[in-house]
Amino acid sequence: MTRAVERNARLRIYGVPMDLGQNRRGVDMGPSAIRYAGLQKALERLDWTVTDCGNIAVPGIEEVSNWPEPARAHHASAIAQASLRVHQAMRETIAAGDYVIFLGGDHSIALGTISAALYQPGRLGVIWVDTHGDFNTPETTPSGNVHGMVVAALMGRCPPPLVIGERRLSPDQIAMIGIRDLDPLERNALRQSGIKVLTMRDIDENGLADVLRAALRALGYVETLHVSFDMDSLDPMFAPGVGTPASGGLTIREAHLLMEMLHDDGRVRSLDLVEVNPILDDRNRTAQLAVDLAASLFGQRII
Question: Is residue 175 within 8 Å of residue 218, measured between CB atoms?
């Protein structure tokens, strides 16, 4: 099933300057870096009516050192508080019938976006593009970083307060693309989960186009797609400004092809664009690439 995106459709942008889900400072400046790289203008050139709704409030790390949290889930209460605000913004966007991009911040913002996207009319499918599976729990995590627990939490596998909303993501609603860096216990859990996991080896052997088609087939019939795109899915030679780089990732053309094909599919309503860390970047290269990829997802074409 595909559908054309109407011209002059409304698209919202929200920033979520979250750096609580991981342990390298600077990713909270990601929304500003992506805006500076010209996201709104790039989308307006594609005939979108764009409203930048500003940033969603996130507690600062200096405020939350004494907040209660589950063992081995650092800053979980503060992340949950911000995620509830993200969830509400997504629910309001759905009610208005708008498209939306959420700019991270670390990948823990998806606790709010995807938990709310489950309230879209019709069945939701999630395309998760990342070097990591983010399928740890407080019991399996080596680090205690919540950005590595997001998918598990969305499925109800983590304790409160990390479970947001009343609906849970099921394994047949998510397909992962570009995975290449898993913790040992996380790897075992993913193998048993029922999630379609398409690794960089799958891309190397079969090509990106066939891998994306396999991901969409695994999702079955869905009416709406949410794309959660971690910039560390790209090889760090192309996207150096990320907090958890791993060599052997997507090329620029593979990432663009992914976004172009998802646009052609016509079912994408929402996008997370996360983990840009301008402190670690080279002249805002990673943020500019994030803008270019968002433009490909929302209609930019070579010809």
Answer: yes
